[in-house]
Amino acid sequence: MKQFxxxxxxxxxxxxxxxxxxxxxxxxxxxxxxxxxxxxxSKGFSALITNNDKKKNKSLPxxxxxxxxxxxxxxxxxxLISEDGNIKVVWEKKAPANSILLTxxxxxxxxMCPQPPKVHDKNLIEISKRILNLIKIExxxxxxxxxxxPTLLKESFFEILDAINKKxxxxxxxxxxNGKSFADFEFTKRFVSSRPKDFLTCVSLHSDVDEVHxxxxxxxxxxxxxxxxxxNLARFREKVEIRVVVNRINAxxxxxxxxxxxxxxxxxxxxxxxxMEIIGLARDNYDTVWIDPYEYREEISQAMRVLSRADIxxxxxxxxxxxxxxxxxxxxxxxxxxxxxxxxxxxxDCSVKSICCGIFTTSxxxxxxxxxxx
Length: 374
Hints:
The chain is α/β, with parallel strands linked by helices. It has helices spanning 67-71, 123-134, 155-167, 185-194, 210-217, 222-235, 254-264, 281-284, 286-289, 297-309; strands spanning 3-5, 7-9, 15-20, 31-34, 47-50, 62-64, 78-81, 86-91, 97-101, 142-146, 172-177, 198-204, 240-245, 270-274, 314-317, 332-333. The chain starts with a strand and ends in a 41-residue tail after the last strand.
């Protein structure tokens, strides 16, 4: 998600609200006004975002930002402003997909996880409910439930599903999960009866070998629980996507992983092999997990061939086109998260830049030396 930093004033507690530039708006509760300065017209808004740093008596909670930051905020965006001046865009009005973070706790500790597990913060559930209550979701937008591991929330997880059903019953929803909770048949049964109508469960599976998968996710017996979870979801004919994050440990098994998937989980709706974001635990374990995607370009092509021949919808995410073989370009996708589509200066004159996923800017200097214009 987009995050910015400003200079706060009169902000005592976190403020959640929808961005507006309309000073005449009659809807002011849970609205954050972007304006030049505080005035009589700004009364009633939850907070003010301004470029003006003139010293005046200010009563409204407000935050001073650069013009560049204010221009990056769209009418209808939902922002969370903290006491220290951080602005998180928790829902982008124009983004095709938005993530809602339900928890940071997890029953895995993947060695390449971009967001290391933390103790659950109960405020995240209340914030998530408030976001869902505030936003208006367009038909083309998707809600992405993420964590941590959302299913560990148990009753709170089902409360979120209920909130979506009541407020956004026709919305498209996806959830990122390790799938282990679905090894419990009764949990799966309740989930199926509670989830929104249009729901895609995205399950992480990183190897065809139990010991390799468990090494990557950091917890023994995870492989078997995830596999059982997938089978239980299949029993209810759920829409399922399998996600494989490619790293040094599994990079040379991609064809075997694809074969394992098509033989054991032929019911899935989609399978994607994903490049790695070098942040969080991936940065801490850099020497163990990093591999240049150029090194596994042949393996990922073979994996796509196996899945496509089995009539399984397959994709490659987060790997620039110049790091894959041309015969695999038809499988490459741009991320639905706009912040993930960025490019190096060398990409400026590339003829396929408009269809390339680009790079993770969050990976900073950890980029492939083999990126070059086509």
